[in-house]
Amino acid sequence: MQLFELFDQSTYNISYQEEEPSTFTHNDQLYDLNKLFRLTDQYDTELVSVDKLLWILEWDFPQSWERVDQADIAAPILVTISDGQYVILDGLHRLVKTLKYGLHQMPSKMVSEEILMQCLIIVD
Predict the structure, then answer these.
(1) Domains, the chain, ranges and CATH?
(2) Is-above-0.85 flag for pTM?
């Protein structure tokens, strides 16, 4: 089953914010998640194959099935490419829910290194 069979394409461009402060770690650096949401809000959404993301589950897996069940799989995940692999910056619970439903693709927004660096939090 494909995601576009479940959702209208127009629902892919959902604006989203977390409660402050909301951060994430990538390559041992701390980033501002809400700033990343704001900077990518108008980005085009593309469908990404979940096969490109499966390797992540060997290293990170959601601790809460309740959060997986509540995840909105119509909302695009944020991904970047690091060392030639797709990396999820935001959307791990959505990935697991997508797999739970047996879907093969999910909406995503590609984040460049330049945009990612604008969200870096410098810790003294």
Answers:
(1) 3-118 (3.90.1530)
(2) no
